[in-house]
Design goal:
Elements: H1 25-35, E1 59-62, H2 73-82, H3 93-102, E2 116-117, E3 127-131, E4 139-144, E5 150-154, H4 157-183, H5 187-191, H6 195-205, H7 212-224, H8 227-254, H9 260-263, H10 281-295, H11 302-316, H12 318-329, E6 344-347, E7 366-367, E8 371-376, H13 381-395, E9 404-408, E10 419-423, E11 429-430, E12 434-441, E13 444-451, E14 460-462, E15 466-472, E16 478-486, E17 488-494, E18 497-500, E19 502-510, E20 521-530, E21 533-541, E22 544-552, H14 562-568, H15 577-584, E23 591-597, E24 601-605, E25 622-623, E26 650-652, E27 656-659, E28 666-668, H16 681-694, H17 699-709, H18 714-718, H19 720-727, H20 735-749, H21 767-789, H22 791-800, H23 827-837, H24 856-871, H25 875-878, H26 890-894, E29 899-900, E30 918-921
């Protein structure tokens, strides 16, 4: 290997913790007495018949906070008044949190102290309830005592999927309803006008401003283009929706529906008046568009790239400025950690002779307005601020990546069978975006996690003798086109003809409710669509007025991926790694997919990668002209020629695989910046490579490697040692700096972890050193690079890549209290530059040496000066506090919060940087 020695809440439901004075404890008790409602019918049942299970009790999983994401009004009020939890709402949070301090002594025998047993079926003495939904005789839902996970067994395909829908509604009905409205851009009208709700619907609707006809067309296309499997998917979806709607009807008549419907004014707690709308097929596509935009839509940011390139050229001249920009972009950094070893998969590489570029005239770029006609609270500063943040999040290439995977082949394990520890980081919410389930029926045999409302199949999990998972990959499937305007601002030249843009609008209005007291308001979201996608910016290019549009290959195709998930659940389809790779080739989301069975491991990078015209540079906007369009692009269907499966990074049987949203393979360019010498993927690479070199890898040792990496401060582990080399290259005589250096050295000697002194102490060991580094990093980065770059270029570069993403950061794609950290930052730049100052070899160096202009003594003075400034900052200055934490509370600033998407609140847990849903698997046999 090369050398490498505010908040982002998804729906703010202002639950009874913020209720008005009339909801005091006494009145809550009175209300509860009248609101206690019957629960879903359940009877004791014998053991469910389990499918063939080749895991040998060596499959485990975990998904905090708990399986039960529904709560009646009575349960919500009890939670708000006394902290009581509905059954199974929070019982996976404690084991999940406990791994942070409990992993050091982990053995195979103690793994399930921190995970669930993910074997198929439920032992007879562990059956908590059995339901035949809607009285059907062809499906049974068995829930286990420990976690309440539904084990759905059907004797018919229809009954199986009906049961999956019914169980999903039992566990996540409110959340599903929230997200179908997010996908349709109607969240504020449904859940209230809180600024965070406004920002959320704006962020996603600009990506997928679909009409009802667009959503239906996706369904029709997915069915028509996939033969028998397309027809089967349609039948499955209809059965699944029938199950959801059956639960809606049962819970409505039985009055045990989620209490949020009352709190948001959709139902009356006394008369039961009001309606919970049935789900329909197009709701699933709307849901899918949200998930795809969140986790599986790599690319974008071309306009920001152009702005920073122009700033570099303005400051340093065209040749030197371009060289500078390319060195910071790190398209194919030779020191970057990769998932596939020793293989090249060229994609989106820099063309030798770029063609069709449409860079804006300096200073001409203006972001396209989305929100119009604001009234009431929509016109306030909080609302407009939320809109600004939503626009920034929507247009950056630094999207949520998250998720990690550690997979080791049997050649290097103690048992001779592959071992995998993997899962997606989907944030922390209550209820969780994902749900657990086991589905057994004709053509389906799987257990694992699925996104609520899309759980007709297990999306990440295990089959009878294999398991699979995914991480976000981020390769570029989004391009920006410059359409030349004609006639007015809403007409453009399309293949020589002046063509009208299509206006798509969504009008939303809200009024105060018990859950959300935001005053009444309204606005209209308006998107102008072209053949080349929605308009995102306006500018001039060479004096010509243009609109910049964004076109992604999955636009109008979110429904297509259903076939790949159907295949993954089919035991008659997936019988080995080659079948697995063929299945995930049908998924057009940009994901890294991993596979393990008792004999094999495998990897495949999915996504519809468009074949670009010769000479087109995917980093920048290009002219909307036939010569620069995707090859064989059909604008009516948004289909094109895509790179063949063999051109996607893929592998079977590699010694080990790691992924933490790092670079997939040599020459494979990803859209986000930051794939350089220091990436959080290195935290896994170093640990897993060490285990493989030693041999005898076990499930416990691989979990420990993941958990240890999940507590590491990337800056401390991979950058701080060289920073301290510079600082201590001469004796440190300043007492303040010397004391800071001593504390940092002590912390490094202890491993550079952000971990509690003891479980539950809510105090960090080496707290002063951690505070010092948190304060020092932004100061040193600015002092190191701004003088050489210039203020304007430095600001433009930080728009491309944030300088830091520490656990306490309240900025960046993940926001505060989200767990995921150290994905986006300037650590590679600092690392390469400091090594250059020290005279160490650097592959893929920056265009020049920045720290002290290359002088060791000047760089040392700069670092010591900023270190002294950082050491003088108080905890309250470094951790200023927010809606969750008091100023100066370091542990709380880092802590993970289960952001409320409903009425149930959970306690904070200590920081870990790990998947939300996670599997630990080692199969002992194969069919």
């Amino acid at each position: 290997m090369p050398r490498r020695t505010p908040r982002n809440a998804l729906v703010e439901l202002r639950t009874p913790g913020r209720f008005h004075g009339f909801l005091k404890t006494a009145s809550i008790c009175a209300l509860i007495a009248g609101l206690l409602s019957p629960i879903s019918p359940a009877v004791a049942a014998p053991e469910a018949t389990a499918a063939a299970d080749h895991c040998g009790n060596q499959c485990s999983d975990i998904l905090p906070p708990g399986q039960n994401g529904n709560a009646t009004l009575a349960q919500i009020l009890l939670n708000q008044a006394f902290g009581t939890m509905p059954e199974h709402a929070s019982d996976q949070l404690g084991p999940y949190a406990g791994l942070a301090k409990g992993h050091s002594g982990l053995t195979n025998a103690t793994i399930n102290n921190f995970f669930n047993d993910a074997s198929f079926g439920v032992p007879s003495d562990q059956v908590a309830s059995t339901v035949n939904p809607a009285g059907r005789g062809d499906v049974t839902i068995v829930r286990d005592k420990k976690t309440g996970v539904p084990h759905i067994t059907g004797t018919t395909r229809y009954g199986t999927e009906f049961g999956a829908g019914y169980a999903a509604a039992q566990d996540r009905l409110w959340l599903m309803d929230v997200f179908r409205h997010v996908g349709r851009g109607q969240l504020t009208s449904f859940a209230g006008g809180a600024p965070s709700n406004q920002g959320l619907e704006q962020q996603f609707w600009r990506h997928a401003p679909y009409t009802e006809a667009d959503l239906q067309a996706q369904i029709d296309n997915a069915v028509a283009s996939n033969g028998e499997r397309g027809q089967l998917a349609l039948a499955d979806a209809k059965a699944y929706l029938d199950g959801i709607n059956a639960y809606i009807d049962a819970s409505d008549s039985g009055r045990y529906f989620p209490g949020e419907y009352v709190l948001t004014g959709h139902k009356d707690s006394v008369t039961n008046a009001g309606t919970i709308e049935h789900f329909k097929l197009t709701d699933m596509v709307a849901l899918g568009s949200v998930i795809g935009a969140l986790f599986g839509s790599g690319g974008g940011g071309e306009v920001n790239n152009a702005i920073s390139l122009l700033a570099a050229q303005e400051k340093h001249g065209v040749a030197d400025g371009t060289k500078l920009w390319e060195s910071f972009r790190e398209r194919n950094d030779p020191e970057a950690v990769v998932t596939v070893h020793d293989k090249s998969f060229p994609y989106a590489t820099k063309p030798e002779n770029p063609q069709g570029g449409a860079l804006p005239d300096a200073g001409s770029v203006a972001e396209e307005q989305l929100v119009y006609d604001r009234t009431g609270s929509a016109a306030g500063s909080a609302a407009t601020g939320a809109s600004t943040k939503a626009a920034e999040t929507a247009t950056t290439s630094a999207k949520r990546g998250m998720s990690n995977a550690l997979v080791v082949s049997g050649e290097h394990t103690a048992s001779g069978h592959p071992v995998a520890v993997f899962g997606p980081q989907t944030g922390y919410f209550a209820p969780q975006l994902l749900l657990l389930q086991e589905i057994q029926g004709p053509g389906i045999s799987a257990r694992g996690a699925s996104f609520a409302g899309l759980s007709m199949y297990v999306e990440l999990g295990r089959g009878q003798d294999y398991a699979w998972s995914a991480t976000t990959s981020g390769q570029d499937i989004i391009d920006t086109y410059a359409v030349e305007l004609c006639q007015d601002d809403h007409h453009y030249l399309y293949r020589g003809t002046c063509t009208a843009m299509e206006k798509i609008e969504q009008k939303n209005a809200w009024k105060p409710t018990t859950a959300d007291s935001t005053p009444a308001g309204s606005y209209t979201m308006r998107v102008w669509r072209t053949k080349y996608g929605p308009v995102t910016h306006r500018a001039t290019v060479g004096g010509k007025k243009v609109a910049y549009t964004t076109l992604r290959s999955s636009y109008l195709h979110e429904a297509d991926s259903i076939i790949g998930f159907q295949m993954l659940n089919d035991p008659d389809y997936v019988k080995g790694p080659e079948d697995f790779q063929k299945a995930v080739q049908h998924i057009n989301y940009t994901f890294n997919w991993f596979y393990a069975d008792s004999e094999h491991t495998a990897y495949y990078n999915s996504g519809d990668n468009p074949v670009r015209a010769t000479g087109v540079d995917a980093e920048f906007p290009v002219w909307a002209q036939p010569a620069y369009e995707w090859r064989n692009w059909d604008p009516a269907k948004n289909t094109a020629q895509y790179t063949p499966p063999s051109a996607h990074p893929n592998s079977i049987g590699q010694d080990y695989y790691i992924s933490w949203n790092n670079k997939q393979a040599k020459d494979y360019t990803t859209a986000p910046w930051g794939d350089g010498s220091v990436h959080r993927g290195n935290l896994l690479e170093d640990r897993v490579r060490g285990l493989v070199d030693a041999g005898g890898v076990t499930r416990a040792s691989l979990v420990k490697a993941m958990a240890d990496a999940g507590l590491a401060d990337l800056r401390a582990e991979d950058v701080l040692p060289d920073l301290l080399k510079v600082v201590t290259s001469s004796p440190v005589t300043d007492s303040t700096a010397a004391a800071a250096v001593s504390k940092l050295q002590t912390w490094l000697a202890a491993g550079g972890k952000r971990t509690e002194t003891s479980a539950g102490s809510k105090k960090y060991a080496d707290a002063d050193a951690i505070r010092t580094l948190d304060a020092w990093w932004p100061l040193l980065v600015k002092a190191q690079f701004e003088p050489g770059l210039g203020s304007e270029l430095y600001a433009a570069m930080t728009d491309n890549l944030p300088i830091d993403e520490s656990p306490s950061a309240a900025h960046g794609p993940t926001g505060a209290h989200a767990g995921s950290a150290f994905q986006y930052g300037w650590w590679s730049y600092v690392d390469k530059d400091i090594r250059a100052v020290l005279g160490e070899p650097v592959q893929g160096p920056l265009d020049r040496t920045y720290c002290g202009a290359g002088s060791l003594s000047a760089c040392r003075d700069l670092l010591i000066g900023t270190l002294k400034e950082a050491a003088g900052k108080t905890a309250a200055q470094v951790y200023p506090g927010d809606d969750q934490c008091s100023a100066g509370d370091q542990w709380c600033a880092d802590s993970i919060v289960q952001r409320t998407l409903g009425g149930i609140k959970h306690g904070r847990i200590s920081w870990q940087n790990r998947p939300t849903y996670q599997q630990v698997v080692e199969f002992t046999s194969h069919r």
